[in-house]
Amino acid sequence: MRMDLTLNGRPAQWEAAPGATLLAVLRDEGLVAAKRGCETGDCGACTVLLDGQPVNSCVVAAARAHGHRVTTLEGLADDPLMRRLQDALVEHAGVQCGYCSPGMLVSLYHLLRACRAEGTRPGDHAIREALSGNLCRCTGYVKPVAAAAAVAAALAGIPATGTEAR
Fold first, then answer.
1. Contact 127, 94 (CB under 8 A)
2. What's the predicted TM-score (pTM) here?
3. Residue 6 vs residues 95, 114, 138: alpha-carbon distances, Å
4. Domain check: are 86 and 135 in the same one?
5. What is the pLDDT of residue 24?
6. What is the CATH number of the domain that holds 57?
C-alpha cells in the first residue's frame, strides 16, 4: 500500500505491506528510536506522535498514518524542549539501560508541550500519568519524574519543589 504522510515535518511517501504496523515501517525507514518491545501496546517503548498525540506504534496499523503527521524522537532532536528534557534526564540520572527512554521522552515532550501551550505547569501526578504507558524496569520513575518536574519549573521560571499539582 502506498501512503502519503508528513514524517518529522516533511512530506513522505511509504510503501507498506497490508497489516504492517507503524513501528515496522518506521524501523524499515531507518527511524529506530522507537523500540520494539512488547508488540502489544503495553510497554510504550515504541511511542511516537500521530497528529501530535502519543501512540504505541507497535499496535497502530501503518495505513492509519496515510494523510497524517507522524513525529518520532528523531524528528524532535533539534527541538529546544526535547533538548531540555534529554539534558534533564541525564542530570537527574533518569536513564539507566535506556531502552524505555525514547518512549518516555516522547510522552514527556507531549505533556510539557501541551502544558506550555495551556500556560499550566504539571505536577508530579500529571507527570506520572503521562508516563503511565511507559514501562521502565530500571529507574523506578522517581528520577524521570524529577527531571520532567525540573524542566516544567524552568519553563515556568520558578524553582522546582516536586510538590506542585496540576
1. no
2. 0.92
3. 30, 21, 34
4. yes
5. 98
6. 3.10.20.30
* 48: number of Cβ within 10 Å: 30
Task: Report the chain's mean pLDDT, rounded to a whole number.
Answer: 93
Residue 166 lies in a domain: no
Check residue 160 and give its pLDDT: 53
Task: For residues 67 and 135, give the distance between their C-alpha atoms in angstroms, rounded to a whole number.
Answer: 30
161 lies in some domain: no
The Cα–Cα gap between 146 and 164 comes to 12
- CA 130 – CA 106 distance, rounded (Å): 10
Residue 164 lies in a domain: no
3-state SS, one letter per residue, for 76-104 = HCCCHHHHHHHHHHHHCCCCCCCCCHHHH
58 to each of 24, 146, 163, how far by Cα in Å? Answer: 7, 28, 34
Q: Which domain holds residue 47?
A: 2-73
In a domain, 58, yes or no: yes
Cell numbers of 102, please?
525514547
CA end-to-end distance (rounded Å), the chain: 43
Nearest of 98, 153, 162 to residue 128 by alpha carbon: 162
How many domains does the chain divide into?
A: 2
Distance of CA 72 to the CA centre of its chain: 8
